[in-house]
Each structure stands twice: as structure tokens, then as C-alpha cells.
């Protein structure tokens, strides 16, 4: 049984060591460290020291591409669009977005450097965190990207202009482009003798990767994961149905493609009185056959006001108790 937490927001090694030792003492076997654009610019050696300290404590290390280019999930700013004028994703409405187009050469160059830095710093597994084309909100019909590069690529492939309204061809185009990038990135990671985990957003998000089978087929993939987090308005029934659905899907895909499934529990913005949701999600995931469980994030995100839970101590202890109980029940 493997379990752990994401960890971020602290870059002073002395404090990181104390936190990680506590995490390990609570029974965690692994940790995910976020690596944003800011980390690559200003904390590269620090990140290496943090990863090394994690290993010294016996924790396996995931590193994620945290909000890089805003092509991945995460609460970090991106300046790639500002540094590369004209590189942003364009919505089908014609509006510019703050996310860089994944098909832009500047992003692809940046990601190659990001991969080399993260692998050289000693990460065990690179976590491809919710790769997606820009979307505004659930249920919005606007989609991206209709930038000049995407329109030229689409015309090359399909012999016609990229439509304004989403069609089966635009869906296939977006899927193929993201899949091609994941193939390139995971191959580069594997050339560093490191592992790859792709974390896919639930179907309700218009990420651009609806076909999970094609992602599971990537030749250098080691783990497939998902994060079907509930909304503030959702009740226990929603947690139960979503985690059952996505856990079964992950297990089925991973069995056929010889991958390790991993499930993420929501451990941020936990409402008072719903501290049992994340433990329930973990239990359902394990019952479905998933032995690799993670929670976002440590101590129920108490240090970050944007993500903080109502009662971080109670939410964290409930998660730790469930993880420990699941580990004992093996
Ligand atoms: Zn584009």
C-alpha cells in the first residue's frame, strides 16, 4: 500500500524537513512536490535539496508540472504567454486566454528544459497533472484553441479550416495533439530513467483528452491516475458514485495496459461536517483495487487561504487515520 500527500508553498529546507518527517511518521510512503515556472526560474537547486531530503526520509518523490503554461492544473501563476507574445490560446469566441498554446514551439522548448531539470533534480516519477486545453467553466460551450498555429495544423491534417463550433474532428485534433505531447514528454522522462504518471481530469471538464484508452496506451507510461473531486454543493452520494466510477475505470485500463492505478483524494476546501468524504473516497478506491492513494494536499491545505479547509486538523487526521487503517487491513 502506498500513500502520501502533495506538498508545496514552503521552500525553506529546514521547515520542509520538519514537515516531511511528520508526514513520514504519519505513515506516508511518498510525497508529491509541485514544480512551477517560479520553481524552475528561482528555486531549481532548492528543489533538488527538497527532493534529496525527501529521499533521506524514505519517501518516494513525485514532481508535477504545476500550472506550467496553464496547460496543467495548479494554483501557480504562469508568465510564458507574457514572455512569448502571440503564443496564447484563443477561445472559439475569439477571446485571448492567459494559457499558452500547447502547440506553440516556445512551450515545447520550455517543457523539454523543465523535464531535464526535474529529472536531474532526482524526482522518481514525473506527474503530468491534468493536461488540458484552456476551458473557462463547467458547461461552457467555448473551447480552445483557435490560434494561428492550431488553425494551420488542423488545415494540414484535415484539409479544411478549423471550425468555430466543436465537431468530432476538432475533438480528435485536440486529443491527438495532447497525446502527441504526452508521448514526447514521457519518452524524454524515460530517457532519464524516470517514471511517468498521467493524471486525467474527470469527463465533466472539457480538457481535450476524452479518450483515456489512448493515454493508457502510451509506451512509456507507468501509472495512470485521476482526481474526481467533489464540489462544495455535492453530497456523499456524489462522492460515492464518482469515486466508484473512476476507480473502476482506472483499474480496468491499468490491468489491460500493465500500469499502476493511482487515485487522488480531495483534501482542500473540506466543509465542516464532511471530513469523512476523503476517507470514504480512499476506501472506495481501495475496494476497487487501487493500492496507490494520494491526497491533495497535506494538512488539508491549512496554509493556503484559497484552498484551506474549514477544520484542517480534523480533515487531515481523518485522512491519515483512514490511510493507516487501509494499510493495516492488507
Ligand atoms: Zn493554439
Describe this structure in words.
The protein is α/β, with parallel strands linked by helices and 330 residues long. It is built from 11 helices and 10 strands. It has helices spanning 13-25, 37-42, 44-56, 80-83, 105-120, 148-158, 168-191, 212-216, 236-257, 277-288, 312-328, and strands at residues 2-7, 30-34, 60-64, 88-90, 96-100, 125-129, 195-200, 223-226, 260-266, 292-296. The strands form 2 sheets. Strands 1-2-3-6-7-8-9-10 form an 8-stranded parallel β-barrel, surrounded by 7 helices. The protein has a two-stranded antiparallel sheet with strand order 4-5. The longest helix has 24 residues, at 168-191. The N and C termini lie close together (8 Å). Residues 89, 101, 103, 145, 147, 149-150 line the site of zinc ion. Zinc ion binds at residues 89, 101, 103, 145, 147, 149-150.
By helix and strand content, what is the structural category?
alpha/beta
Report the strand count.
10
Helix fraction? 40-55%
**Describe the biggest sheet?**
8 strands, parallel, barrel
Major β-sheet strand ordering: 1-2-3-6-7-8-9-10
Overall radius of gyration: 19 Å
**Secondary-structure element order, as H and E?**
EHEHHEHEEHEHHEHEHEHEH
Ligands and ions found? zinc ion
Q: Which stretches of 5+ consecutive residues score pLDDT under 50? A: none
Shape: globular
Distance between the termini: 8 Å
Mean pLDDT equals 97
> Beta-strand percentage?
15-25%
The number of distinct helices, counting runs of at least 4 residues, comes to 11
Amino acid at each position: 500500500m502506498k500513500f502520501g500527500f502533495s506538498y508545496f508553498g514552503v521552500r525553506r529546507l529546514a521547515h520542509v524537513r520538519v514537515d516531511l518527517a511528520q508526514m513520514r511518521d504519519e505513515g506516508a510512503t511518498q510525497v508529491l512536490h509541485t514544480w512551477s515556472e517560479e520553481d524552475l526560474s528561482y528555486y531549481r537547486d532548492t528543489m533538488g535539496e527538497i527532493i534529496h531530503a525527501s529521499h533521506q526520509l524514505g519517501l518516494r518523490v513525485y514532481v508535477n508540472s504545476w500550472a506550467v503554461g496553464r496547460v496543467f492544473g495548479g494554483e501557480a501563476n504562469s508568465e510564458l504567454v507574457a514572455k512569448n507574445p502571440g503564443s496564447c490560446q484563443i477561445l472559439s469566441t475569439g477571446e485571448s486566454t492567459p494559457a499558452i498554446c500547447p502547440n506553440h514551439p516556445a512551450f515545447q522548448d520550455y517543457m523539454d528544459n523543465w523535464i531535464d531539470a526535474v529529472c536531474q533534480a532526482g524526482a522518481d516519477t514525473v506527474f503530468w497533472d491534468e493536461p488540458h486545453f484552456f476551458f473557462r467553466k463547467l458547461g461552457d460551450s467555448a473551447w480552445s484553441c483557435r490560434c494561428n498555429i492550431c488553425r494551420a495544423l488542423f488545415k494540414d491534417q484535415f484539409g479544411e479550416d478549423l471550425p468555430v463550433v466543436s465537431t468530432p474532428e476538432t475533438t480528435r485534433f485536440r486529443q491527438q495533439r495532447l497525446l502527441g505531447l504526452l508521448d514526447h514528454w514521457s519518452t524524454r522522462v524515460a530517457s532519464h530513467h524516470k517514471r511517468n504518471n498521467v493524471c486525467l481530469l474527470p469527463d465533466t471538464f472539457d480538457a481535450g483528452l476524452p479518450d483515456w484508452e489512448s493515454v493508457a496506451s502510451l509506451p512509456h507510461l507507468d501509472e495512470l491516475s485521476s482526481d474526481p473531486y467533489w464540489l462544495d454543493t455535492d453530497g456523499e452520494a456524489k462522492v460515492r458514485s464518482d469515486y466508484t466510477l473512476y476507480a473502476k475505470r482506472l483499474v480496468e485500463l491499468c490491468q489491460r495496459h500493465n500500469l499502476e492505478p493511482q487515485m487522488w483524494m480531495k483534501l482542500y476546501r473540506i466543509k465542516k461536517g464532511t471530513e469523512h468524504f476523503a476517507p470514504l473516497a480512499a476506501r472506495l478506491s481501495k475496494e476497487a483495487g487501487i493500492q496507490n492513494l494520494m491526497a491533495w494536499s497535506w494538512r488539508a491545505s491549512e496554509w493556503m487561504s484559497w484552498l484551506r479547509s474549514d477544520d484542517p486538523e480534523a480533515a487531515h487526521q481523518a485522512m491519515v487515520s483512514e490511510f493507516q487503517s487501509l494499510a493495516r487491513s492488507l
